[in-house]
């Protein structure tokens, strides 16, 4: 999928921008406790808020996920109850999202005959990931619910179970293994090399890459946002007079990255659900 391959380059640009800003901050920060403190991986493991030390322990990241899930449910319940024959703006937005998942994902990948069976799954995954991703740029929440690997793993395993189940149902266990591990049209002696690769791809790499790709992009985005806005605070309130002008630079950079994160939030939801549809399509096709 050439389009998806080209989009992978966005991660490299994000890392380059992060490195450039960090270099400026290392030059600007002073010695001791008053200097600039860059964001770290500890941001993704906040201290417990409720029920500390129990099985039901809740931290800020989990609370953000609960809020996003509740907001998503409320939005669709309200949209369903207020649905009209002549839609308003709110209903138009909801219908646009639903039609996008149905037409541009399910029907384009699976075909109109097979799409209805998986449209609900793909739409739910797309909307859920989009909601969890957008929490990273919402003031007061400020961290994506998908930036810790647990949730991406759950979503990837959901897709994994669905495409394996769809393949087994379509071909039987033996037929699914045969079409997945022994692609037709290949000289038999190449199966010695090809079958192990296909096994790794179908049963390990697909769910792993789904989870890692989603998490890595959200982690990178959070670190860049925190770096820019904490740098703005440092330059304006703590740095020397000669360095305060950099505060405007980092503020503009943070605003630009916020807009970029909105795009990435939607893009990663789209990539995840497109790949989910592709995997399901591959598992139910007779030959691939």
UniProtKB/TrEMBL annotation:
It comes from the Bacteria. It is found in: Cell membrane; Membrane. InterPro entries: ATP_synth_F0_asu, ATP_synth_F0_asu_AS, ATP_synth_F0_asu_bact/mt, F0_ATP_A_sf. The chain crosses the membrane at residues 63-80, 118-141, 148-168, 188-205, 217-237, 249-282. Pfam families: ATP-synt_A. Keywords: ATP synthesis, Cell membrane, CF(0), Hydrogen ion transport, Ion transport, Membrane, Transmembrane, Transmembrane helix, Transport. SUPFAM superfamilies: F1F0 ATP synthase subunit A. It is a multi-pass membrane protein. Gene3D superfamilies: ATP synthase, F0 complex, subunit A. Key component of the proton channel; it plays a direct role in the translocation of protons across the membrane. Belongs to the ATPase A chain family. PANTHER family: ATP SYNTHASE SUBUNIT A. This is ATP synthase subunit a. It comes from Cellulomonas chengniuliangii.
């Amino acid at each position: 999928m050439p389009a998806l391959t080209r989009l992978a380059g966005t991660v490299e640009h994000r890392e380059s921008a992060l490195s450039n800003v960090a270099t400026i901050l290392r030059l600007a920060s002073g010695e001791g406790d008053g200097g600039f403190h860059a964001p770290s991986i500890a941001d993704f493991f906040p201290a417990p808020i409720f029920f500390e030390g129990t099985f039901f322990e809740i931290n800020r990241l989990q609370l953000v996920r609960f809020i996003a899930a509740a907001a998503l449910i409320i939005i669709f319940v309200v949209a369903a109850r207020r649905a009209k024959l002549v839609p308003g703006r709110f209903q138009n937005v909801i219908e646009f999202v639903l039609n996008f998942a149905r037409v541009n994902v399910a029907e384009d990948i699976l075909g109109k005959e097979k799409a209805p069976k998986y449209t609900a799954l793909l739409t739910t995954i797309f909307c859920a990931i989009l909601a969890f991703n957008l929490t990273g740029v919402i003031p007061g929440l400020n961290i994506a619910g998908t930036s810790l690997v647990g949730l991406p793993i759950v979503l990837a395993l959901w897709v994994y179970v669905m495409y394996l189940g769809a393949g087994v149902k379509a071909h039987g266990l033996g037929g699914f293994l045969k079409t997945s591990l022994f692609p037709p049209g290949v000289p038999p002696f190449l199966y010695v090399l090809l079958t192990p690769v296909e096994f790794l791809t179908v049963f390990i790499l697909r769910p792993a890459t789904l989870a890692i790709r989603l998490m890595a992009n959200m982690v990178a985005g959070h670190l860049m946002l925190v770096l820019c806005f904490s740098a703005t605070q440092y330059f304006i309130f703590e740095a020397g007079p000669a360095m305060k002008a950099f505060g405007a630079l980092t503020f503009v950079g943070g605003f630009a990255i916020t807009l970029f994160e909105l795009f990435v939030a939607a893009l990663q939801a789209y990539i995840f659900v497109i790949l989910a549809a592709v995997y399901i399509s591959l598992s139910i096709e007779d030959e691939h």
